[in-house]
Design a protein that fits this description.
The structure is a single chain. The protein has 7 helices and 9 strands. The protein is an alpha/beta fold. A hairpin with a 2-residue loop joins strand 5 and strand 6. Helix 1 crosses helix 7.
Length: about 190
């Protein structure tokens, strides 16, 4: 039986990590997906424990104070984080887990679980392509788009420290490359 690992995938917003993770999960249904905790409002159709663990700000801050998060970040007045108990449960059961986190969260998980973690940074082919992808999604107003793009230099710099970097200039090729990295690390 392969040793379980924590497959931590990060990228700038619009880098394609969600599409790559979706394809990876289809290829590897045995992997658990790390469900993040958040203080954001639940959207219609979302369920506690499926899309997110929805918490109050007070609950989240208690988890931070008690060191019960593997990583956490505060974005635009909202907390996001990974519950240590969920990671520890998966590892204890011998199951690998996939994470969709930002670069700071990826760094925190690697620091907390150094032997189990494989970091994969999904890089856009260029800043222009990244900006076009974000605009084409149509989910961001101009101010949110500006804030996301302002993080790009920091995210690209942090991504250079990851175990692996995959340029997402062709989605199928990027999925295949990530899958090869994951498969190699599970042996």
């Amino acid at each position: 039986m392969p040793t379980p690992c924590l497959i931590v995938i990060a990228s700038p917003s619009g880098g394609g990590k969600t599409s790559i993770i979706r394809a990876l999960r289809e290829r590897h249904p045995e992997f658990e997906f790390s469900v993040s905790a958040t203080t954001r409002t639940k959207r219609p159709g979302e369920e506690h424990g499926r899309e997110y663990f929805f918490l109050t700000t007070e609950e989240f801050e208690r988890l931070i104070a008690a060191d019960e998060l593997a990583e956490h970040e505060h974005f635009y007045d909202t907390y996001y984080g990974t519950l240590k108990r969920e990671v520890d449960r998966a590892l204890a059961a011998g199951r690998s887990m996939i994470f969709d986190v930002d670069v700071k969260g990826a760094r925190s998980i690697k620091e907390r679980y150094p032997r189990e973690t494989v970091q994969i940074f999904i890089a856009p082919p260029s800043m222009e392509v990244l900006e076009r992808r974000l605009r084409d999604r149509g989910t961001e107003d101009d101010e949110k788009l500006r804030r996301r793009l302002a993080r790009h230099p920091m995210e690209m710099e942090a991504g250079r420290t990851f175990d692996h970097i995959v340029v997402n200039d062709d989605l199928q090729r990027a999925v295949d490359e990530v899958d090869a990295i994951v498969t190699t690390n599970l042996q």
